[in-house]
Every structure is written in structure tokens, then in C-alpha cells.
Amino acid sequence: MGILVILNARGISQQPALQYSEGLLNLTVVAKNGDIIGGLKSENFSIVDGKEVHAISFIAPQDEPSTIGILIDKSGSVDTKNFFPAVARAISVFLKSDARTNEYFLMSFNTSQDLVLDFTRDKNRVHDSLQSLAKTEPKGNTAFYSALNSGFEKIVFSSNRKRALVVVTDALDNSSDITYSRLKERMKKSCVPVYFVSTLAKDSFSSMLGSAAISYMQDIMSTCGGSAVYLKQNDDLDRAMLQLGREIQNQYLIGFRLNTDQSETGKVGWRPIEVKVTLPKDSKIAGKPYVRVPRGYYFEKKDA
């Protein structure tokens, strides 16, 4: 009896009667001018693990629903005028822009994490929960690493294959009960793209804490895929959420096959990977596209 080893945000799962191992990648393709590129087919992608090119087994339909976890920083460091009402409005715009029957959950965090809304496909419930959150007074320290870790732990129970975390934060961690190195191990084992809406004040960019926050966000996006929008003012929130919404809507989910001998010998752990894109010959898109994709995947051997 064979084992199917699925490597994606859900971690490792097993199903009988299949004779190969399969990896899953969530990614987006971006043109040189910043536009998101949709409509590509399997022949436009190649997946390289070291010197080996993996066969692509499928590309999911781009209108396939996603599970989107929304994490909102409610600590005192993001206390700007009318911030939460602006966040609630922007996320409502984000929800309306996506016609798919997505699944959502909503968390807020400061020193601790609060599951404001569990998995739901009802956008009205998300909207109502956001309105309640908009009345919250920002306060307390920032357990950013712990909150992101909770987001990864939660999203593995989603019912969709396409997944993303949207995090509204300044990433100025000062209260987490886990280290960044522990968070990074979690990211590697249950990795989904992370999209940041950064509330970091412009005058903090050059500070030691601000530079560290930006560095951590960049490393998270590099490890898991995703992107970031850095706000200049609250009025930019609508634009930021629509921009991230377009990326998530045009996300590719690609399955690729691992050689049986690799699965059985069990090259366990983090394995670097590279995804290359070749545009169709009749494409009018100028320049070489950029792929936002996890820089690797985690392989773990499971006994039959």
C-alpha cells in the first residue's frame, strides 16, 4: 500500500492506495510592472529541487476558494487615530472584492491572542465581528511571534487547499512566549503565504526596533511567500487590502511529484526549492516575471 505525503500548510497527511509522494505550493506570479499574472498553465512552470526537476501533477483552478486567516494587532504601539474603524472598513472592502466562497477566521492580539471569529464562509459574520473589534481600545504589549504561530496552528484545520494569512501589525514584538527561531520552524513545517499590512510608523523605519521588524517581516515572506504593504496613513488601508486581495485571488496552487526513492529514503527536513516561470510565446507582458513562493518545503517520512 502506498502513501501520499502532502506537503503544504496542512502539514503531513496520509491516504492509502497511492504510489507517489506529492508536494503542494501556494504562489503568485508578478510582472515587472507589479501586475499580478494569472491564467498560466503547468507548462509555464518548472519546479527544481537541487538538480532535479519535479513533474507537475496539477494546477488548481484559480477560482478555487481559499481559507484566509486575518490577524489584527491591537497593541498600544499601533494606537493611531481611528485606526481600528479604518481597518474594519478596509477589510470589508477586501471581502467584497472577492466573489469566491472563501473561508475566514479572525484573530486579534496584543500580549495574548483572541480568536474573534472561528472558521466561517459568512462574510456578514466577518463584517459584524470587525465592527465589534473597531470599538476596541488598542493597548498592551505586542506578542507578534506568538500570534503568527497561533495563526499557523489554526489554519492547518481549514477545509481549503489554498490558504493565506493576512496580518495587520507593526511587527514590534516585545511580549512573545516563543523565540523567532521556534516560529521559523513552525513556518517551515506548516507554511502558507503571509501578507503583511504594516502599520510601522515611517519615523520608526530607521530605528533599531523598526529595522528589526522590517527584517523579520521580509524573512517571513521569503520563507513562506507573500508580500507586504507599508502604510503611510490610515487612508491607504483600503488600497492596501485591495492590492493584497488581488494577489490572493490570483494565487496558484501547484502539485508536484517527488520521486519514490526520495520518499522512501526520507531526506527529511527543510529542502530548498526554486520555481521558474516561462511566459507563453504570445504573451505581451514585458520583462521577466517574479515568483512569490516559499523558498523550500518540509519533507518528513511517515511510516505506512
Describe this structure in words.
With 304 residues, the protein is an alpha/beta fold. It has 2 domains: 6-25 and 41-59 and 252-299, no CATH class; 66-249, Rossmann fold (3-Layer(aba) Sandwich). The chain is built from 7 helices and 16 strands. The strands form 4 sheets. It has a 6-stranded mixed beta sheet with strand order 8-7-6-9-10-11, with helices on both faces. Strands 1, 2, 5, 12 and 15 form a 5-stranded mixed beta sheet that branches. Strand 3 (45-49) and strand 4 form a beta hairpin. The protein is globular and about 50 Å long. It starts with 5 loop residues before the first strand and ends in a 5-residue tail after the last strand.
SSE topology:
Elements: E1 6-7, E2 21-30, E3 45-49, E4 52-54, E5 56-59, E6 66-73, H1 83-96, E7 103-109, E8 113-120, H2 123-133, H3 144-155, E9 162-169, H4 180-189, E10 194-198, H5 208-224, E11 228-230, H6 237-249, E12 252-258, H7 260-265, E13 269-272, E14 274-277, E15 290-292, E16 296-299
Parallel strand pairs: 1-2, 6-7, 6-9, 9-10, 10-11
Antiparallel strand pairs: 2-12, 2-15, 3-4, 3-14, 5-12, 7-8, 13-16
Helix pairs in contact: 1-2, 1-6, 3-4
Task: Compose a concise summary of this entry.
With 304 residues, the chain is α/β, with parallel strands linked by helices.
For this entry, give a set of tags:
304 residues; alpha/beta; Rossmann fold; disordered N terminus
